[in-house]
Amino acid sequence: MRLVLCLAVANALNVVRAPPKTQTMGAVAAWHATRKNEITRRLGRDAVAELEAPTPARTLSCLAAVNVANVYLASATPALGGLWWLVVAATVGAWCSLAQFALLHDVVHGGADVGGAPGERRRFRERVLKYGSQPSVFGYWLYLALGHLNHHAATGDFTAKELFASSELAFEDGDLFFASHRQDSPGGGDDDPACISIARASYRTLWNNGGSDLAALGNAAAYALSMSLERAALCGNDKLVALTDSNRLFFPNKPPAFHEMCGSYARAAALAQCGVVVLAHGDLRALAYLLVAETAWQVPPWPAASLFVSNHGVHDDGAGVGGAGPADRPTYSVYGGGLFDALCFNANYHCEHHDFPKVPLWRLPELRRRAGADFYPESPPWTDVLDAAFRRRVTYPKWNREAVATSELSLL
């Protein structure tokens, strides 16, 4: 498995490694790699290379714009009086935070690369990710820096218990941080982490999969509450990490390099937060604005929440969340037209992204159009997806690991 993760990360960083003739890889990664080859044969390698070409000017300029907007809004909206700051944070601020996440996600996959040797590209991505994720109260750095690339290689192969107990530098599948709030695992409670987990405690004690309207509303409220409480707790924990260079409260087995990275980032984030508070003339609602903005787009009734709660989930009958098909596939997208794409900043094209991780978000709709409906069929309406995510039990598909000839597949 470690070999698989290293190969996936190396390929994402454009590092050339000679693969062995055969190897064991995650079944989800194999499924996407097979589709990638099939779509490439349909479109042609030149067309795929065109779609995968980085867009550094567009990506970095948009990232700078949304970050400046969030600094301005976080520092200015408390002066509006009343709860207007909350309204702005939950709408415009949420969209800016989602855009920040989507753009940084593209950076991690090389979408803003400007050339240079592999090591230079990696260091460039690390700098953009660290400083481009400001302002935030907790933000997306930890997941994107140490959990996302492995998520592509090992989707559904690990449990939350393994994630928190791991001694590896990077997380085996960072998606579990988010899925734990609203999605069961194949092993049920036996897969829960041994440490304190707001996400799993909320899911195990507050959720009711009875299917009634009242149960669905209660589940949505429990999900929103656990997401908010966890983000607030992590914001507080980050200050401890900044002072101690240690994140051992949650990850006691991680190596020293992990804790040093967390400490360095936490100090940079704390400085950015102090700057926003100064611009807000000492009003701490500026930090509350950032907390709401980072959380709101991930919870109902925000349309983007539909993609967040359904990208790797199935119901007990094997169908995707809300009846998305075909059944028994590991990854789903949510489609809803141009306005929906804009609200989601194209992050709703999740299956397309797992098939072609290097295609910048701007070109994912074009990838879907060219590949055709047999690869990317229509999804249920986003409202149906949101309703089903909180009305019916959602878990990971039970995928089996399999041996794959790497000469036949293009690894992620």
UniProtKB/TrEMBL annotation:
Q: What are the Fatty acid desaturase domain coordinates in residue numbering?
A: 181-382
Which key words tag this protein in UniProt? Signal
Segment forming the signal sequence: 1-18
Q: What name does this protein carry? A: Fatty acid desaturase
Which organism does this sequence originate in?
A: Aureococcus anophagefferens
